[in-house]
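# step 3/5: fold
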Amino acid sequence: MKIFILFIHLLMPYQAQDSLVPLPDLKAFTHPKFFVHDCKCGMFNPKYFQLEVYKKTTDPDHPDVWIIPPCFEYGHAVSITGKQGDFFRIKFIDEEYHPICYNCSDTIYYVKKGTLGSWVFRFNFDTYDFDDEVPLYNKPHENSKTVAKLKTGEWVVILDCEGKWMYVESITKGKKKRGWLNPTMQCGNPVSVDAPNVPVISIPE
């Protein structure tokens, strides 16, 4: 019997733990669905209001801490520094308010994919204004097919990353749109557009 079990074990493919893939400090923010779903009221939905944060990825069912938005206007600003399995590795970049500890040096944490957000925009330097539509691509490069279009100023959740590209999903009601978002059309600042070479202009309503 032991020999049979050993034989079966040898036939099973080896599944190594997902390795960490570094990412180039992609800017994003927490709690995107909390604000888009208009949960700014006394009836807080824990699903969107309490973000699970982990110190390691080996125990996905038991987060180390839950954090809430810093205010009722926007979430915490973070950098995505890597991905591992179903998780993003992040750093909180708000110098004035760290959601977990005061004046701490332990700045590396993990959150599950799909819990961070970005807003999308497309700046037209010919007209010096925002274009109305932002394309999402089938693959993470500009020569790929456009599979969907979003409106400038929409918020999206980040499902995955490849280099500087983000694989995103729309949050608005109706049919969800998914695709790869060009790095030049991402904004991870929860307050205003801060993309390189783009003037500070209010996002159109």
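# step 4/5: annotate
Residues 34 and 45 are 8 Å apart (CA to CA).
# step 5/5: archive (pending)
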